[in-house]
Design a protein that fits this description.
The complex is a heterodimer. Chain A is an alpha+beta fold. Chain A contains three helices and eight strands. Chain A has a four-stranded antiparallel beta sheet with strand order 2-3-1-4. Chain A has a two-stranded antiparallel ribbon with strand order 5-8. In chain A, strands 6-7 form a two-stranded antiparallel sheet. The radius of gyration of chain A is 17 Å and the shape is globular. Chain B is of the alpha+beta class. Helix content of chain B is 16%, strand content 31%. In chain B, the strands form four sheets. In chain B, strands 1, 2, 3, 6, 9, 14, 15, 16, 17 and 18 form a ten-stranded mixed beta sheet that branches. Chain B has a six-stranded mixed beta sheet with strand order 20-19-10-13-22-21. In chain B, strands 5-4-7-8 form a four-stranded antiparallel beta sheet. Chains A and B meet through loops of A and β2, β13, β17, β22 and α8 of B.
Chain lengths: 139, 396
């Protein structure tokens, strides 16, 4: 059996694609394990979805080809939460609120705060607690 | 033994030996105190964090015809006009007009006086709106215009209280989240917040105010400003460690500097959910190594500095004076402390990263001969405690 990998995706569904059960087909037809972090449908009936998909490289590739048959924008770097490096003062207020350690002190000497986007589960705690408005949601 | 004059001569000749308060301990451990005191001229200290008692005086110059502003707003933030005609004072914690504050708690507090000051230093164009009752010599009743810091005659930061010597560690012992100036504190002691640069902080490196006093030149967000008075709530009489390091707030400094010389990355508006707005500033203060004793005090380490842990759900607001215990900055920086047997996650409001940047920038300026030291014209009081506000039922 080939090795499984996990990829974080951010999908944007325009109004015309919002009602299609695309995630169902990722599970049923492409054998992917899906872990949804955050989903939102706007009043304009556009949709945002941030999720992990786990499966073999081949299955994920085929699933991506399937998604691309729709008018869905796929962002494989999955930036649902963005940190503005210029706004961040590295105070460390976010660190004790971040449940996964995606935001952490990266260097004991300089006390620099680093953000590892792959560990972010998009709980949005950092957005609420940052005094400098350094973290923001893309949707 | 060295004098201020001798140290300044070495700075001017470009030969001064300058280290930051982050580097000096290891240097002294290696060289020995006596040899290091001979060799080192200046130790730079710094801090970066929210400092609520901050603000600035602005002078707009006169419009044609003239106005004596009696009420004024910059970007809808009320500014103080109870001074001369076109002078105003912008306070860091003033909210924008129409901000719902905590009407639907916790409020977001997105913009206020601190953000006005940040935008001014960043060179942004801002809106001034002012009203007046009109006089014979100042007939204009209303003005609306747009300006940048370059249009102003003066923009002078005047901060009644900066650089708290030490500070509380805030925790929440209740069963609901509390929103404070120390950030959001989760219930049942889930997290704690501290706010000090610890071993790098100016007054922790000069615990008895021997070199930092009225008239001391300071690096205020990039400008060369100075200490103009003791800060408000300055209270040198406090509990101290055997080495003299305060175990609570203690001393403070009143600072002033020209905002036109400031750097925007060290002047930052602050929004604290459920609490309000403020201003974070980067401050650097050089300590002249006059003798071994002064040098020894700059060698203080995070493990030797203790902060009181205070419950911000009850003891702080009710002013009970109760302290849950003391923890060192070394423990705080580890990311976890233990309070009453429970492990608590720790975050900070003060940026050591930025403070280190300030300490290094100031050290470079001193090395290049661009920043000279000043001897205080008056020392800060060491023996005064902090008075409470008494509620009297009747006038006596």
């Amino acid at each position: 059996m080939s090795q499984t990998v996990t990829k974080k995706l951010m999908l944007f569904f325009p109004k015309c694609e919002c009602e299609k059960p695309i995630i169902y087909h990722l599970v049923k037809d492409h054998n992917l394990i899906v872990n949804v972090y955050r989903a939102k449908v706007t009043p304009e009936e556009e949709g945002y979805l941030v999720l992990d998909v786990t499966g073999t490289e081949g299955d994920i590739e085929k699933a991506m080809d399937f998604i691309r048959t729709f008018d869905v924008t796929v962002n494989t770097t999955g930036k649902g939460v963005a940190r503005d490096e210029d706004r961040c003062t590295h105070c460390g207020q976010c660190v004790s609120h971040c449940p996964t350690g995606a935001l952490r002190i990266g260097n004991d000497g300089t006390r620099e705060v680093v953000y590892n986007e792959a560990d972010c589960i998009e709980c949005l705690a950092c957005i609420r607690v940052c005094p400098f408005g350094a973290c923001a949601s893309t949707f | 033994m060295k004098t201020y004059e001798q140290i300044n001569e070495r700075i001017e000749s470009g030969k001064a030996v300058v280290l930051t308060a982050d580097e000096i301990m290891d240097y002294v451990d290696k060289k020995g105190l006596a040899a290091a005191a001979e060799e080192v001229d200046v130790v730079t200290t710094a801090t970066f964090g929210p400092m609520c008692s901050s603000g600035c005086f602005l002078n707009f110059g006169h419009s044609q015809p003239k106005i004596r502003m009696s009420e004024a707003w910059i970007e809808d933030v009320l500014v103080y006009t109870g001074i001369a005609a076109v002078d105003v004072y912008v306070g860091a914690t003033q909210l924008r007009h129409g901000d719902p504050a905590n009407m639907y708690p916790p409020g977001e507090f997105r913009y206020g006086g601190g953000h006005v000051i940040e935008d001014l230093v960043a060179g942004k164009q801002l809106q001034l709106f002012a009203l007046s009752y009109g006089t014979d010599d100042y007939p204009r009743r209303e003005i609306r215009t747009y300006f940048t810091i370059d249009d102003l005659n003066q923009a002078i930061m005047v901060n009644p209280r900066n650089c708290y010597q030490n500070y509380n560690v805030a925790i929440n012992d209740s069963d609901r989240t509390v929103y404070t100036y120390m950030g959001a504190l989760e219930p049942r002691g889930e997290n704690a917040t501290y706010c000090s640069a610890g071993q790098l902080s100016p007054l922790l490196n000069d615990p008895y105010y021997e070199t930092i006093g009225v008239g001391t030149r300071v690096w205020l967000a990039g400008a060369h400003g100075h200490v103009y008075a003791e800060g408000t709530q300055h209270a040198g009489a406090c509990e101290r460690t055997p080495e003299g390091v305060p175990k609570e707030g203690a001393g403070t400094l009143a600072l002033t500097g020209d905002m036109k010389q400031m750097r925007p990355e060290f002047v930052r508006g602050v929004s604290l959910r459920g609490y309000g707005v403020s201003l974070a500033l980067g401050v650097g203060i050089p300590i002249p190594i006059l003798n071994e004793q002064v040098l020894k005090r700059t060698c203080v380490r995070d493990r030797d500095i203790f902060a009181p842990v205070v419950d911000y759900s009850a003891d702080y607001p009710q002013k009970t004076g109760n302290v849950l215990g003391h923890v060192s900055y070394e423990q705080l920086r580890s990311g976890e402390i233990t309070v009453a047997g429970q492990v608590v996650k720790v975050g900070s409001l003060s940026s050591y990263y930025k403070a280190l940047e300030v300490a290094n920038l100031l050290a470079d300026e001193v090395r290049r001969g661009e920043f000279l030291l000043t001897e205080p014209s008056a020392l800060l009081p060491k023996d005064r405690p902090m008075k409470p506000l008494l509620i009297r039922e009747k006038a006596s």
